[in-house]
């Protein structure tokens, strides 16, 4: 995989095609990543003020997307931009990805990324007048979809990176939802008896398990499962619910940290500087942590589920919305750690109280997690 920094310039004076009409004279920076094996392009994010923390967070989002698709890269080739900090490299090293820094003034060392930047400028951005960031995101999303699904590549024998089957043609009018009739099969030129093809028996998909009302589901990310050891963890397949808990592994100051968030109320718990031995058995450790967090806030320990180690079940993540909110919470935690001067100088208890009283996105609106928890207590009173 090859990563590069690309910019859409905005200058003073007269504007050119590909430039923006937005004020402040700032440039929109984008982070493209290219899979060298398939030539597939991924744009990690777009911003007007890129810094090291933003680049590191986009790298985390990219690895989560690759993990959901079952893609495990081995190497990352990057340029010598100062925004690629040690935290950025640590994100990839934690996934056992070797980071290769390109030589000085050697664009051929990252030729695929350089070629794509020139291609997107010649074929797209130089022909349009970009009106703002949202317009640029829409334009790049459409062009990246065209580049990955339709544009031919000589290295791939004139095939696109995502060689998808052609769409099904539909006839207009009555019966438009039916596929067109197939032509009759041609008679076989081969003489002799036909050999009957083997029947392929497909195994039915495993249904979701029906869990009891007293059981609590903790959905762990792939990073956390790798840390716990997939062989020693027993996972269940259950339908997503607003009563589920999500657990994710964070890296702050080169230390492992744990973030647990409730899907229905976004009630969160941040634990700093954890070790693998401290998390085993994970079910019992989660019960102790969440019970202590609820009691610290003066809440009943069963307001968000009955916490008993025998009733806790582990599963894989299902909701992208909850994971997105956890990414925003992780970014806020990193900011507070930087303001305090490091992980050892931050007051974790005060930070947890602040996170539970801050506004977070819930169902298209901004809500406070602690207020949502108190709303669950009202019907029982």
Description:
- With 381 residues, the chain is an alpha/beta fold.
- The protein has two domains: 2-156, 2-Layer Sandwich (Nucleotidyltransferase, domain 5), CATH 3.30.420.10; 216-377, Nucleotidyltransferase, domain 5 (2-Layer Sandwich), CATH 3.30.420.
- It has nine helices and 13 strands.
- The protein has helices at 52-68, 86-93, 111-123, 133-149, 222-228, 282-296, 320-340, 348-355, 369-377; strands at 2-3, 6-8, 28-35, 40-47, 75-78, 98-101, 216-220, 245-252, 255-262, 268-271, 312-316, 360-362, 365-367.
- A five-stranded mixed sheet has the order 10-9-8-7-11, with helices on both faces. Strands 1, 2, 3 and 4 form a four-stranded antiparallel sheet that branches. Strands 5-6 form a two-stranded parallel ribbon.
- The longest helix is centred in the last third of the chain and has 21 residues, at 320-340.
- The radius of gyration is 26 Å and the shape is globular.
- The N and C termini lie far apart (56 Å).
- Residues 9-26 and 206-212 have low confidence and may be disordered.
> Averaged pLDDT, please?
80
Specify the CATH class of the largest domain. Alpha Beta
Total DSSP helices: 9
Global shape: globular
User: Low-confidence segments, ≥5 residues, pLDDT <50?
Assistant: 9-26, 206-212
